[in-house]
Design a protein that fits this description.
2 copies of one chain form a homodimer. The first copy, chain A, is mainly alpha-helical. Chain A folds into 2 domains: about 80 residues, Arc Repressor Mutant, subunit A (Orthogonal Bundle); about 45 residues, no CATH class. Helix content of chain A is about 55%, strand content about 5%. In chain A, strand 1 and strand 2 form a beta hairpin. Chain A binds a DNA duplex through helix 4.
DNA sequence: GATAACACTTGCTATTTGCAAGTTATCTTC
DNA sequence: GAAGATAACTTGCAAATAGCAAGTGTTATC
């Protein structure tokens, strides 16, 4: 997916230039809400992402500064990914996306989790940041 | 863009099935934040969307219940679009996207507007809802 | 050294996007 | 009423991306 030169500089257009596709935010989701950290784990997430697409998305998110890649010191084959602070700052948006979908679509989000998100967004996000060592 | 059968029922995956592409949220943006309401106006927004892509996106958002289409009573050629309540409920997510992009990317969002969003999200969203007659 | 695992890469097909001309219905002007 | 303009798409083709599955190179294990 070659990114054309920037369109407007509108924040939403700018954001969509970075993650306006079907797969990127799924990677961010896994890093944010689950303990998946490797290429193989993202592939195994059950979303049906193709290997070339995942590789390209990881690289793009890395270049955008949303995720960071390191090599597992205990296994030189394994690349580990984590969210950067810039990536963590996507939490409010992802949270609102969860809340929206839970209200308007059929999802398997645990009702208690959604309720916790809606009850106190700031607290929920603070909890995520703590988990991620921020 | 043929939508494959649903992947996981995760809220984020579900949402991305609906608007996980480069163009859909730009339509929602225009309806939410500007006074663009017609096919021609969306095309003229300066984002470089192709005509066939716009037509398909409008239809898809209509089918998803996010926008609604009516014919302008004063001009039978003109289709007018508006956000449904379901579409309006995307406001918090769009707002967080704006805030994120303003913080991490170079955008032309007016600083005062971004500050108003960050200062009191609920109030800003209430203002949007009032403008949209909710 | 043989085998396996990890992270991609590659070659090909299928699908979508992008471009620009085309079509149809409605409106405006004369 | 006819001619011209406009609005919303549609269409045909080229370009780009997604998807599939086999392949490759490095590292780890036995």
């Amino acid at each position: 997916m070659t990114r054309k030169e920037a369109r407007s500089r509108c924040p939403i257009a700018t954001s969509l230039d970075i993650f306006g596709d079907r797969w990127s935010l799924l990677v961010v989701r896994d890093l944010m809400f689950t303990d998946r950290r490797t290429y193989g784990e993202f592939l195994a997430a059950g979303e049906g992402m193709a290997t070339n697409v995942l590789a390209q998305r990881l690289e793009h998110l890395d270049c955008a500064g949303i995720i960071a890649r390191t090599i597992d010191p205990t296994d030189g084959r394994r690349a580990m990914y984590r969210l950067t602070p810039k990536g963590m700052d996507l939490a409010p948006m992802l949270l609102e996306m969860v809340v929206w979908a839970a209200a308007h679509e059929e999802t398997d989000a645990p009702p208690k989790l959604v309720a916790a998100m809606k009850r106190d967004r700031k607290r929920f996000i603070a909890g995520l940041r703590k988990v991620h060592g921020e």
